[in-house]
Amino acid sequence: MSRRLAHVLLAAMLMAYCGIAQAQSASAVDSSSTAEREAYARLPVCTLSADGQHLAVQPCRTAPARVPMPRRPVPQRIDPLPDTRLAPSTPLPVLSPLSRDRAMLPALAPAAPAIGMPAPVVAPSMPRALNNCTAGGCNDAAGGRLNNAAPGMVITPQGQVCSHNGVWIQC
Hints:
Order of helices and strands: HHHEEEEEE
Region (Disordered): 66-93
Distance between the termini: 66 Å
Keywords: Signal
Low-confidence stretches: none
Signal peptide: 1-23
């Protein structure tokens, strides 16, 4: 063992010994007279000898409790929250009789996104239950056949890839 480790172990043994002595002496001091308390207070504080192998003086008393150090002040860092304000809404157009008639016409098909713009994301459908599954695929509740693809994936008759989890499927 290194010398440092030996000192640490001896210090731990000393603290354990003093802790036992303190527990025994605390119960004895509680039930004893003030004269015994004063005699205990006159004992020297437990310390290690110069060689670090045993207590320097016996009997001894435990060291007085240290006053806890206050925590050092540290400035509190508060990060600002991101801006979550909504964009100002545009006022609704006022419909004149001519524009009101155009508003009643059916809407045209939505324009294709401009080049370089991402296509709108389609939300996934609600999960559907499966009736039974075999090695080749599963049948859904409507009787449609879903063929197995990669693990956890099936392909619908329309060619749509769906995720398969237990008895549920979500496209």
